[in-house]
Amino acid sequence: MQPLDRTAIELVSAVRAGDLSAVDCTEAFMARIERVDGKVNAFLAVGRQQALDQAAAIDVRRRAGRPLGALAGLPVAVKDALCTTDFPTTCASKLLAGYRPPYDADVVTRLRRADAVIVGKTNMDEFAMGGSNENSAFGPVHNPWDLTRTPGGSSGGSAACVAADMTPVAIGSDTGGSIRQPAGLCGITGFKPTYGRISRRGLVAFASSLDQIGPLARSAADCALVMETIAGHDPGDSTSLVEPVPPYTQLLEEPLAGLRIGRVAEHYGPGLDPEVARGVDEAFAVFEAAGATVHEVELPHAKYGIPTYYLIAPCEASSNLARYDGARYGVRAEPGRGVRDQPGGSVRDYVGSFDSPLVEMYCRSRAEGFGPEVKRRIMLGTYALSAGYYDAFYAKALRVRRLIQQDYHRAFGSVDLIAGPVSPTAAFPLGEKTGDPLAMYLVDMYTVGTNLAGIGGISFPCGFTKGGLPIGFQLQGPALAEPLLLRAADRFQRLTDWHRRRPSLAS
Amino acid sequence: MTATPAAAAPFTTVIGLEVHVQLQTKTKLFCGCSTTFGAPPNTQVCPTCLGLPGSLPVMNRHAFDLAVRAALALNCQIAPVTKWDRKHYFYPDLPKGYQISQYDLPFSSGGWLEVTDPKGAFSRRVRITRVHLEEDAGKSMHDEVAGVADSRIDLNRTGTPLCEIVSEPDLRTPQEARAWLGELRLLLVYLGVSDCNMQEGSLRVDANVNLHIPRADGSPAKTPIVEIKNMNSFRSVERALAYEAARQWEEWQATGAELGSAPKQTRGWDDAAGLTRAQRHKEESSDYRYFPEPDLVPVTVSEEQVAATRGAMGPPPSMLRKELAERWAIPAYDADVLVNQGHDLVAWYEELARLTGDGKVASNWMQQDVLRTLNERGGSIADFPLAPAAVADIIARITHGDFDTSRGREIFAEALTSGKSVADVVAALGIAAVGDDDLEALCRELIAANPKIVADVQGGKEQAAAGLIGQAKKKNPNVNPARVRQKCIELIRRG
Q: pTM of the prediction?
């Protein structure tokens, strides 16, 4: 059997049944990575030998009749924001180049326990800050549907990896849309669960109150499979939810009759590409044909989502990133020398007077280690938390966040799910928005609300532009509505084949 | 500069204290690492207290409960809901670049602690503004060898639970401040909240001080508030405050500068030089950018939990002093001395008092013998070689008239050093009760040999009989001097 064409559910059951060895499965995807990742740049690290060794051990255990984990033999790629003991964890930052954590993220531990095969670490926007993957210190990821375009971000490597069949599933993180938006731009399914459903322990923090880990896969059903392994309470994360994890894959079979879907007028404002609007409308029609009803709902404070998000997230980031000072780990700038010898000589840029060698180490390690977008957000957040500005910015943003939460709460009183576009346009060309940070921030306009409200959202393809680029559709649900979100997306995918389309990767 | 004696000072010294106390927990506030003092550097650390990327804090509920116990003992109100905040500053011994602390919603506030001088010099109720919980930072060690600065960081201490206790400016003399700190330490040690060991840094004190100087119209001129840091003992606190009061008095006389004319100044105490020095202005102008810690959830404390904590607390020292004085009929001064030595010593005393049946005699032995020995030998009552029963045995034999108190002390000393039982020591020293017949025979012998003394006693000078006692002890060291004296006088009278 050709593993590359199979869903994760099929692969896992084939390995379990002995129809496919874990080694053959891993080898097939490894070969694919070696063949195409030169074009895509989805991976920052690939562990061929360790993956094959792990796969071989799984095969031995299967042949011996010993029990296998729920994801036995399934190749998984993990965003480089998740700590792994056997791969460097860099967050695509020069500052953490070569950093190897002494512990695995909770999600990684769960994947290993389930016998998933972790093949490598995926590229991303530095510290998950960005929507195009162009903020990686190790080069942008290229969208497999058009290599001149962005895959989205920040989990662009994870999305492109799945879209290009380099792994059947990948793990990403979503702070303001960082799973759903790249999934949408890459034509795959990306799931951001309720805040706290998956432990954040070992996820390098960007904005702690917004960060949420989730799966990216070819289908909602495959997301459901991975969710059963990675979701659950972790006593090591005080914000992780204690509610038991439902059997997501089984619940896909529940009937969907009487589903009420909310449509938000605010989603159709300026900036929404007409082709995307058409694709989204067609998706609504699919749901209606399946028996759902569509109702207009209001999210009156949604228009404040972007400014609110771009205060809260940078404030938390400025705090979370304070630890990268060059003192204990990561890259340290030695007095009088740069982080590394760069063409253009960054050292000259920082010649000046420092109060002490310590301050010089701090300033230069951070100046040279962080990229421009990370610096921009640290400065934004530091400013907004400063004495005299706190109330006007951070405290006010928190109040608006509460209003946005209330909007959703009210809306979910009359509908089961809220639907709309994932992002205002399909994949845009690399370089198009890099000079205009504000335009870049607007790509998150439909996704940040989910994070601010702490609820769940899923995105999946609902069509293609005339130029052949995927169009994403988003469903948002109330807290802990994971089963319904997955079931609704799965139902859509049983009725359509957009998620089965594959890029040719010709360029 | 000479310190002006406070009593003669033409001003009031206004003092508030900020005390940091490490809680006596086995593990840190937000991770499972040990808090044991003195381990090799950086051996009691994990991703969380090292602040490694992706690590998360989980609150140690035992630490929180201990802190609640401290706050209740300080008569504070306990907030039903409290939260954590991040306090930001860059320093290499602060691995996350922020400290998890409490800012606008501390878990407790509005308490007080009273201190009374046992000799009656002062009695002061000091209000507690707030008590909050936070994590300790690591330690920086700066070496300067041959002009090359080398700093080393030990992160073992990072994340140790730390209670910050902030008082209102209610103290009025350096002596009061020292005594109040003593009372605070005693209280926290009694409650098992902290070992309050200043040498190991488990109790640290900063002081805020200024002067109120009466003007002609009666309103006070207030000098700028100075925060004093780097005081490593309660004695240093007292000295630093006395020095600072005198310094501010001189400065005010010279400049007339008043509160509000300049930002609050921080001065470091130099114990060897005996003076405070201004610290760099930069270190005090920090903007900590507090904001709510998103990695932790708010903590709720129910009334039931507060009641349970309160119920499990033993009596505070102030109450124990009263109880002890009443129960054993000892003076307040005695109760003060005993209670100030801590819980274990009080328990030891009470056992002795019970066995002896005389609280005052037991108290005298505690103060004159047991405590003196402890002071000489060092160590705590837990390491004391004698059990209360042994001392009670000595006291019982004295009361019985087997020997006198000074002989009892010899037995006490011998039992301490030899480790033998009291009975064995008594036997080894050949101490045996002298029978009535032997005593009479001895006394007759002495009377016969000392006509001068006999004449004096017959002349009414009974104190002359003392001359016979020394001779009696030489002839038989076991005789009880009181009985010798009594017998001799009786025989002389009888003629």
A: 0.90
- Chain B residue numbers with beta carbons less than 8 Å from the beta carbon of A362 are 90
Compute the Cα dihedral for B252, B254, B256, B258 and give only its sign.
negative
Under DSSP, is residue B262 helix (H, G, I), strand (E, B) or coil?
coil
Q: Is the pLDDT of residue B119 over 90?
A: no
Q: What is the pLDDT of residues A131-180, one digit of tens each?
A: 999 999 999 999 999 999 999 999 999 999 999 999 999 999 999 999 99
| A107–chain B nearest CA distance, Å | 12
Q: How far apart are the first and last CA of chain A?
A: 28
Nearest CA-CA distance, residue B266 and chain A, Å: 20
Structure tokens at B431: 């101490």
For residue B439, give both structure tokens: 């005593």
Q: Of A154, A155, A199, A459, which is the active-site residue? A: A154
Tell me if residue A466 is catalytic.
Answer: no
Catalytic residue among A93, A132, A173, A178: A178
Cβ contact (<8 Å) for B291 and A319? yes
B50 touches chain A (CB under 8 A): yes
User: At B77, which helix (H) or strand (E)?
Assistant: strand B77-78
Q: How far apart are CA A248 and CA A396, in angstroms?
A: 38
Tens-digit pLDDT profile for residues A8-50: 999 999 999 999 999 999 999 999 999 999 999 999 999 999 9
| Short-list B12, B480, B436, CA closest to B222 | B12
3-class SS letters over A94-129: HHHCCCCCCCCCHHHHHHHHCCCEEEEEECCCHHHC
The region, left, alpha or beta by phi > 0 then psi within -120 to 50, assigned to residue B363 is: alpha
Question: A residues 347-386 near B, CB within 8 Å?
Answer: 355, 357-358, 362, 382, 385-386
In chain A, where are the structural domains located?
3-261+416-500
Burial class (CB in 10 A: 0-12, 13-18, 19+), B390: buried
In this structure, which amino acid lies at residue B204? R
C-alpha closest to that of A5 among A504, A502, A443: A502
User: CATH classification of A3-261+416-500 is 3.90.1300.10, yes or no?
Assistant: yes
Contact by Cβ (8 Å): A159, A152: yes
The yes-or-no answer on residue A158 being catalytic is no
- Is A79 catalytic? The answer is yes
Query: Which chain B residues are Cβ-neighbours of A237 within 8 angstroms?
Result: 56, 58
Domain B436-494 has CATH 2.60.40: no
Q: Does B300 touch chain A (CB under 8 A)?
A: no
